[in-house]
Amino acid sequence: MSSTPFDPSGQPEYLTSHAPQEPRSGRKKTVALAAVGVVVAGAVGAGAWAVTQLVGGGPGAASVVPDTALFYAAVDLDPSASQKIEALQTIKKFPALDEELDLGSRDDLRRWVFDQILEDGECEGLDYGDDIEPWIGDKLGIAMVAGDKQPDPVIALQVTDEDKAEQGISAFFEACAPDETFGIAFLDGYALVAQNDDIADAARSAAEKAPLADDAEYTAALDELGALGIATFYVSPEGPAALNESTMGQMAGGAEIPTFCTETPSGLSPEELQELDEMCEGLVPSEDAQQKLDELFADFQGAAATLRFEDGGVELAAAGSGFPAMGSTATSVADLPASTVAALGFSLPEDWTDTLETQLKASFGPMFFEQMMSQIEAQTGLQMPEDLEKAFGADSVLAVDGSTDWEAVGDSEDPGVVKAGIRVASDEADVRRVVSALLAAVRAGNPDFVKVEAGGGYVAVGFDDEYLDELLAGGDLGSSETFEDAVAEADKARVALFLDFDAADGWLERFVKATGGSDDDVANAKPLSAFGLSGWVDGDTTHMVLRLSTD
User: Fold this and answer.
1) How many Cβ atoms sit within 10 Å of the Cβ of residue 144?
2) Do residues 496 and 533 lie in contact, with contact meaning Cβ atoms separated by under 8 Å?
3) Do 496 and 534 contact (CB within 8 A), yes or no?
């Protein structure tokens, strides 16, 4: 199958005979439209594996998506030459995966994904060879485009033949979503699929005038990422506000609001309160919570991410400007003992409890949040969340050491066999008070099993005195090759996560075996070296990288 995009002659054509103009169910249609792209998008899990040509890349579907896109995600099965080489070298390290996929070309990859879809049995009568293969291209974009009343989903599929693409997409809807309407417009070798012809037409016209690929905010966000990979994601400056507005709900016009939605009843359990919040959702939106969420992203200037193969591993890199503050200083996770096998470090901004409160209220509802805080205060005697803010300072680290004898953990009554602890840059008295209150609340029979020690400007909490001394003394974990490969820009990171798969004589392989993993599962686990996450700030730009490294 040729990978050369179809270059239609003349003006784009609009196909208006597919369905009525008005959609009947926006939510259902969004799902149905997204399914159109699954044939290509699902291939992300397999990577850009075994792509034989060493050409590709380019703007992809962003060239036919309008710059009014609030959210955008793209998949490219024909990326740059370097990505194909990296993909090949990485996947070949996993012999069981290599053999299982048995992919030798892009078409093998697309067919494999299509076969996974057919296994669900929901697309009866659809045939890859007849309905998909004759027209499907290498690139796909999925966008939520600003509309008159609400964002409209638009799918941009690269095609090699317009007539066959029209027939194949129609066959897809007939087999997989027979009750749904859709519309198609063609532009520059892509099929734009939307809920109806009007939306497809409008997206085509808007993209002709101002494509996302030429948008200054979009290109600036992508420039911060460096090399792009097999998948790209983008959130516009207007995206968070639009999402906030759609998820917070609207006041029911003219409807009588039940009293229990405006006045919190007493004596309800947390489960009953959460159920009550769900019942009232959409009737009484929390204007305060919505305003605070809007304020969090008031300076947001857009963000982008890419999934790519890098240095023998896989990483997801993200960057954006105008995010809420991460923290005031870099985490000290790189200064942990060299024997550390797992660590989480984070630096907190001064107002982190206000941000957390806003997010929890938005997620669980104001009534449930207030009741939850009241119960914690009653049980512990702490002031929430003020005391938490005092206990966790600008630099907090959770660490697990490789000297832990995990086989003895289940048999021993001494918690000191667990070589783990928390190290915080905080006041010792505040930490001791919070720890004592929490232990009393859970009615710990012997609260002395939790140790608290201080030194070097830190306070450490754990189970073993000797390990806490090591934790306070620090070390040179950051200089290990495994750590460097997994945690990007560790010296700048204000949040960092590290997990060493090779530690303790390959604990991951033994864990896979112990949990009933097959020989193939063990073989696929063997090449994994470490997992890392790091986030840092460079000027006005916040960076985040998740990386899975291999041996």
Assistant:
1) 23
2) yes
3) yes
Taking residue 85's Cβ as centre, other Cβ atoms within 10 Å add up to 14
CA distances (Å), 24 to each of 32, 35, 166, in order?
A: 12, 17, 22
Separation of alpha carbons 62 and 74, rounded Å = 8
Q: Residue 13 to residues 143, 144, 147, 186, 197: CA-CA distances in angstroms?
A: 21, 22, 22, 6, 11
Q: What is the DSSP letter of 5?
A: P
Is 50 exceeded by the pLDDT of residue 11? no
Alpha carbon of 189 to those of 163, 215, 367, 547: distances in Å?
A: 12, 20, 52, 34
Nearest in space to 533 (alpha carbons), one of 520, 547, 519, 514 = 547
Single-letter code of the amino acid located at 281: E
Report the C-alpha gap between 317 and 348 in whole angstroms.
22
Residue type, 18: H
Virtual CA dihedral for 111, 113, 114, 117, nearest 10 degrees?
160
Radius of gyration from C-alpha coordinates of the chain: 27
In angstroms, the CA 217 to CA 304 distance is 10
For residue 117, what pLDDT band results from cuts at 50, 70 and 90? low
User: In whole angstroms, what is the distance from residue 467 CA to residue 420 CA?
Assistant: 7
Copy the structure tokens of residue 82: 């370097």
* pLDDT for residue 525: 81
Residue 41 confidence class, pLDDT cut points 50, 70, 90: very low
Burial call 484-515: b when 16+ CB within 10 Å, e when fewer: bbbbbebeebbbbbbbbbbbbeebbbeebeee
Tokens linked to 445: 């029979």
Q: Are 501 and 529 in contact (CB under 8 A)?
A: yes
- Residue 510 φ/ψ, nearest 5 degrees: -65, -35
Residue 125 DSSP class: T
Please give the residue that has the higher pLDDT: either 522 or 406. Answer: 522
243: exposed, middle or buried (C-beta count within 10 Å: 0-12, 13-18, 19+)?
Answer: middle
387 vs 147: CA distance, rounded Å:
45
Position 440 pLDDT exceeds 70: yes
Alpha-carbon gap, residue 264 to 21, rounded angstroms? 44
Q: DSSP 3-state assignment of 212?
A: helix
pLDDT of residue 129: 87
Contacts of 532 (CB under 8 A, 6+ apart): 483, 485, 486, 487, 488, 496, 497, 498, 499, 545, 546, 547, 549
